[in-house]
Amino acid sequence: MKMSKYYVPTLREVPAEAELISHQLLLRAGMIRKLASGVYTYLPLAVKVLKNIETIVRREMDAIDSQECLMSALCPSELWKESGRWEDFGPEMFRLHDRHNREFCLGPTHEEVFTNLIRHELKSYKQLPLSLYQIQTKFRDEKRPRFGLMRGREFTMKDAYTFDRDEEGMRTSYFDMWKAYENVFDSCNLDYKVVEGDSGAMGGSDSHEFIALSEVGETEIVFCTSCDYAATDEKADCNYTVTSTNEKQTLEKVHTPDTKTIDELETFFNISKDNFIKTLLYTAGEETIAVLIPGDRELNELKLLKHLEVQEHGLEIAAAEVVQEVTGAAVGFAGPKGLKEGTRILVDKRVPEMVNAIIGANETDYHFKNVNFGVDFEGEVVGDLAMIKVTDPCPKCGKTIEMERGNEVGNIFQLGTKYSKALKATFLDENGKEQLIVMGSHGIGVTRTLAAIIEQHHDENGIIWPMSVAPFHVIVTVVNSKKEDQQALGEEIYQTLKSNGISVILDDRKERAGVKFKDAELIGIPLRVNVGRDAAESMVEFKLRKGGDTQNVHTDALLELIKTEISK
Ligand code: ATP
Ligand code: MG
Fold it and tell me: Which one of 99, 417, 441, 531 is most buried, counting C-beta atoms within 10 A?
């Protein structure tokens, strides 16, 4: 490919809308353009890298005998109604009608469609185990599409589905997939951790997430410094305890003008945050729910959702009018004592142990102090509702934990019989007895993986592609395209490399050298050959994008050098 013909509209400026480095560099390197919120156009360079990632994925799926299929993105609603997810997916699902007014969705994931495929024809235990996958476009109307390809509303996923005769088979398929995912992410040169995840809308039991580490990642993970425990923060149990030997004192109302947040209260009372009880108000359908947690803690919404048995879209932070109605006060003064009758009060297990705590008084500008559970208020104690903190003990062994951030690039699930039961996907065992197929489902975010690679492989000048996914392995830059000898030698090297099967791009544009060098760095091609002043002597400059090592090389030695670098 020649740069003079290639469509790579690079940008010098950092686009204002992009916070994340991968988003900035994808825009600047002329790889993506935004079409609508969370919807992107992929330009030639991006398509090349995506194909390379897909090649790695296909190789590893092949290696575990998973077979590639391709399902439609357009899915009839009936299947989703059978599984119950037409409701469960809520507003995240793109829904539409055809001209006959039949309902469809644009598939956010394909458990139902794959289960439907096999339920009609797969009959015998002899046909199991079976593993199928596809690489296909998914649609999710995300609440907060952001960070470029990290959280789009349209994205590419590799989704695999495994079908086994029993739990043991399902687990074998699960660990095969786990190993394949490790190979995929190793091949993409990603630094990642595998952690326990939540099963969320998928249902089923065990699940693991592959988290590409990044300081600005959306997911926080917890891992133990002593044992093998590793989980997402929302999955992790928070096992700290509170104890107090103080004697219970009598309730007192305190005038706290304009003091609403925990930080403001901490200053006002000159006492640490763990002495306050936070009262968070939510609505779930008709119900208003007050959730009480210690003041130095964040609520783990996932634990709350699980306790309430509602989907994410079924729970909302109460609107200001609702707060006003149930507390009779402005936002910031809610407390469990004297809430409107009918408000459900859920209490984190630490709250009853707090002695002489401080709560909102349900009256604007007032708080109560010396508040004690069982004396001044009651509530349903539901166990652990707090988000784990790095100072907490390991949920498994009690030792010290560490926390890091990252982006979920893959997720494997043991589904069990959730979908086979709902869609009646059965087989006959050796005894002719009908059994439910035991399933697994396994996703890789292909487009998110692309972004995650850039997050980990870049410098101040641009992207630094790992060789395995690079759009081209080599860029040959003609330093001064007005000089015929440079143009001619550049062309010759380009042809030689091409005929030797090396993926190469020739920068033959009539641009200043500085512009070409900047673009070469920005688009991150791992190996650079600069054809300049010494072209007449067949000498060129050979440079590694990573680390910037430079050497002058005779063209006779160039091919071997490049081959060696590529195979490293
Ligand atoms: P998240 O928690 O980030 O919303 P998820 O757990 O809902 O993702 P899965 O259903 O597990 O996602 O989908 C499989 C993979 O698809 C994820 O591991 C992720 O890499 C990718 N993915 C999911 N949602 C998006 C999105 N909105 N944009 C890009 N990739 C996504
Ligand atoms: Mg997931």
Answer: 531
Establish whether residue 448 lines the binding site of ligand 1, counting it when its CB lies within 6 angstroms of any ligand atom: yes
In the CATH hierarchy, which fold is given to the domain comprising 252-383? YbaK protein (3.90.960)
Residue 190 one-letter amino acid: L
CA geometry: angle 439, 443, 445, nearest 5 deg? 170
CA distance 201 to 418: 11
pTM: 0.95
CA of 49 to the centre of ligand 2 (A): 23
Ion ligand 2: protein residues whose beta carbon lies under 5 Å: 411
How many A from CA of 209 to the centre of ligand 2? Answer: 7
Give the distance (Å) from ligand 1 centre to CA of residue 445: 6
By most ligand atoms within 8 Å of CB, the mutation choice from 153, 157, 234 for ligand 1 is 157
Q: Give pLDDT tens digits for 318-346.
A: 999 999 999 999 999 999 999 999 999 99
CA 174 to chain centre: 20
Return the CATH fold of 472-567.
Answer: Rossmann fold (3.40.50)
Q: What is the pLDDT of residues 523-557, one digit of tens each?
A: 999 999 999 999 999 999 999 999 988 999 999 99
Q: Which CATH architecture has domain 21-69+108-235+403-454?
A: 2-Layer Sandwich (3.30)
Residue 543's closest CA among 453, 454, 464? 464
Query: Hunting for tokens 């001209």 — which residue is that?
Result: 99
Distance 233 CA to ligand 2 centre (A): 14
Domain residues of the chain, as ranges? 21-69+108-235+403-454, 252-383, 472-567
